[in-house]
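User: Some background: our group keeps a shared notebook of sequences we're curious about, and every so often someone picks one and asks for a predicted structure to add to the entry. Today it's my turn. The entry only has the sequence so far, pasted here. Could you supply the structure so I can complete it?
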Amino acid sequence: MFEFAWPWVFLLAPLPWLLRRLLPAADSGEAALNISFIAELQHLTGQHARARLPSWRQQLPFVLLWGLLLLATARPQWLGAPLPMPASGRDLLLAVDVSGSMDYADMRWEDQQVSRLSLVKQLLGDFIEGRQGDRVGLILFGSRAYLQSPLTFDRQTVRFWLDEAQQNIAGPQTAIGDAIGLAVKRLRQRPADSRVLVLVTDGANNSGELDPLLAARLAADEQIRIYTIGIGADPQEDGVLGMFGFNPSLDLDETSLRAIAEASGGEYFRARDSQELQRIEATLDRLEPVAQNPTLARPSLPLYPWPLSAALLLSLLLVARTLWPGLSQRLRAVANRYPRRPS
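Assistant: Of course. Here's the predicted structure to add to the notebook entry:
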């Protein structure tokens, strides 16, 4: 179906005529003969001097040019039949802790010692790629919480922003409550029974303005399920640090994370190594998607380049017609100055 996106543009059609009627005549810059008694001559003859308008044949190209510009500005387009858009998955927000402690290298991936954040990037990146049909978003939080990527079907972009995340980018501390509050703000406008927040952290809430348990209750009121993942290795049993009972996960507040998950109807998971984190992702993958109302979209083919190209071509022809007499005279003058020598 053919239609104009902005049909009101055609109301500007009489604009050149109105400007000519309302604005004073432009000064041509040429010398003019002023006669002091011209007003008396006009009174005797009953005629008044008027600006001489071009003939309709001279005005026709400019009228056509103005019409083509209006036609292109009105954005003509061809609309196809409505097509359903896939919208059968969940609205899933990932809240990833990027505080300073996430740089601690107590995790292993492919027989290499890696930091907690590096492992989260690797495994959650694959998790994001598998969310076909889901809208996925990303929140990064440290001392403050920031929405790095809104809910979108573009999973590759969300994974890119996760891969680009750096520790301490949002501050060295951990604002779990603010991260949950930001997720509630973003998910509350989405359909109920499809709102999911996956929160990954290795510490306890020690920053921010919102209490995590209060934020979890707000999430429960908005029917948002929160799945919390506590990351960090167990205490070492060998080595110098093991002799002193060093616990790399000492700051992890599992009690609060478990309470947050239970308050919102979700679950708490503990990830001590890459294998456990993979099993957690497999469990999250088994969450049953909830059907949403399908959205319809009509593909549109823009047609404005055609009248716009015609207007450009016509303007070039008008400029060429104006410049050609002077150019031809110069060419003849040059030819007369340098006559061709007889062979």
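Suggested note for the entry: The chain has eleven helices and 13 strands. The first strand starts at residue 2 and ends at 4.
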